Predict the 3D structure of the following.
Amino acid sequence: MTTPALCAACPAAIPFADILPWAIFGGLLFAIGLYFVGVEQGAAALFDGAKVHGFLHDGRHLLGFPCH
Ligand SMILES: [Zn+2]
């Protein structure tokens, strides 16, 4: 007689080494997004002009970053 499974669709364990590259990639995308939404203005701007700032302006206000 077999014991019944504890759950019908148990998730498979994912090794940490398989998650690490995706965690680094996701963290990098997050950092880039955070930079462009939150910091890309003034002295910290990588691009001249206000095109990037203007393009992300609504997102900046939506997330509560100080702007003007
Ligand atoms: Zn603003």
In short: Residues 37-68 form one domain. Residues 57, 60-61, 67-68 surround zinc ion (CB under 6 Å).
